[in-house]
# Entry
Amino acid sequence: MRQGADSPDFSALYDQTNADLLAFLLRRCPTPEDAADCLAETYLVAWSKRDRIPGGTDARPWLFGVARNVMRRAHQRQNRFATATDALADEVRAADALRLDPLGQEQERLRDALNDLADIDREIITLIAWDELTPAEVAQVLGLSANVVRVRAHRARARLRALLGASAPENEQSSVESGL
# Structure
């Protein structure tokens, strides 16, 4: 890490970010084991590049970017083994169906609506909503400008509202939209 008054040591950076990075990866990886592997590899990469980790508040979004790249490479490796991945995905879906789902159909509708968004828009929305990154931090993670992130987030929210409004019964529509 860069030397300076605002540069935390590596173990402090790990303590401050590991729970958020694990949550980020758990929501995006097919299995918890894959998420744990990506988390470990993220910190391995960060350790090997510790002299290039930005100081201060820029370290967290930098790590999210590393995690995203590690995850992307892992997904590319998994795609080479498509048959095994499909079988594993079927098992994960079956196990997921057994979990209690407190939001029920509303959560399923939201998941379907998110899947209708462009990949980059879905990534922007989930980074903002789930991972509580600011548009400026999302811009750092995705390598975009903060303005592009704000505009895409605005349009993606409008698209989500339209998708959810088109399929929601009258009494549900307002409760769903309040979550956006």
In short: The chain has two domains: 6-99, 103-180. The domain at 6-99 is CATH 1.10.1740 (Rna Polymerase Sigma Factor; Chain: A). The CA atoms of residues 103 and 109 lie 10 Å apart. The first helix runs from residue 10 to 28.
